[in-house]
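In practice, a research group might receive sequence data for several interacting partners and want a quick structural hypothesis before committing to experiments. The following worked case mirrors that situation: the sequences arrive first, and a predicted assembly follows.
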Amino acid sequence: MRKVTARQLDIYNYVKEFILTRKYPPTIREIGDEFGIRSTNGVRDALNALERKGLIKKLSNQARGISLPPSAFPSSENIVALPIIGRIAAGTPILAEENIEDTITMDMSMLPRSSDIFALRVQGDSMNGDGILNGDIAIIRIQKNAERGQIVAAIVDGTATLKHYHPATNKIELRASNPKYLPITISEGENFYIAGILAGVIRKC
Amino acid sequence: MRKVTARQLDIYNYVKEFILTRKYPPTIREIGDEFGIRSTNGVRDALNALERKGLIKKLSNQARGISLPPSAFPSSENIVALPIIGRIAAGTPILAEENIEDTITMDMSMLPRSSDIFALRVQGDSMNGDGILNGDIAIIRIQKNAERGQIVAAIVDGTATLKHYHPATNKIELRASNPKYLPITISEGENFYIAGILAGVIRKC
DNA sequence: AAAAACTCTGCCCTTTTGTTCAGTTTTTTA
DNA sequence: TAAAAAACTGAACAAAAGGGCAGAGTTTTT
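A structural hypothesis for the assembly, expressed as tokens:
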């Protein structure tokens, strides 16, 4: 196996930069234009060499059919853009585009493994007792059920609220941790469901 | 401007996932195959709607000519690995290698602009009153001075502690926010300095 | 010195892919 | 309830893009 030549490396770097910045690969002719190679076959030769040497992979008969190995991409592997949910529009799934107010990028290393996660901006001081302050960002792992006492993100009448979950027969109590606030009681048939449980808190001071 | 329909959102999510995982956009026909749309024009209508509503941009007459706004991509651009400081060895600067216990990667978007930042693992419940719990990670912006009442990371005898800063003549008081704890009083000449002030809190539940 | 790989040109062909036109049916909205 | 938008079908077309062939000069290897 021969070494990668300077010319090949130039072309590789161009392709890599192109993909990284534009999010799609160049065509053979676009590469040719960049390097003043008039024949598509000139570029093909270079790409074939790069493929033989393991730097790229060609996808046959596909427009813009060049792919880079995963190692070429900055390890945004476990970086995720979490949607921050604002008001939940009636009848829409939580993660529907129109409910997303903003996004926060963070590293999954501090999150549960599951990908079903979103964030809520905390409003009010009802959960002060648990160290959750007004303006904090609450990270929520989506799940339908919760255990007694867990902190859940509950959707009541289209508004998300963070409370302790206390089910009882025929009703559910949502308790604040700030004694200033009375529990919210949900009777059967009311417009209520659990969006998920608290998985983390982030505060900017 | 009408809302994004469920169908459009499905298609958008497919396109986004496709681009994020494969690093190139799908063709109109690939989208059609996925959703059982037999006419390329059916897909075109959907893409045109998504473009009108600002979710995507179409690149005319280009193979795989769909692009997403930058916000759709998790940017590893401003991801930093913050050092988590443990015990501070005598005579060493805070960020000296031997003081670093671990690192936590996170997005700078929730941090102050400065690059002089580190993290502390909170021990004890002395700052409960400010919603800072045992085990939380405190993000500290390095600076030597603080204003009265600010929460500072103070180094007392080589140990970092998080407290409210209350200077007075000839002494400094470090106050907890949990009334259970008495203030720490630092007289002049004692081994003490301010490492920085609190810039954020992160909690894994 | 010969073989192999590299770096192209030029031309042509095929496949892939985007675009346009002319409709239909259903849902949403003013 | 009429109009607009959504969500398609189907066919034809045009442009974009990949592939192949023949060849040639240059540089590396063996």
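Before designing any experiment, note the following. Chain A touches chain B at residues 19, 22-25, 27, 63-64, 67-68, 73-76, 79-81, 96-98, 103-107, 109-111, 128, 131-133, 136-137, 151, 198-205 (CB under 8 Å). Residues 6-68 of chain A form a domain with the Arc Repressor Mutant, subunit A fold (CATH 1.10.10.10).
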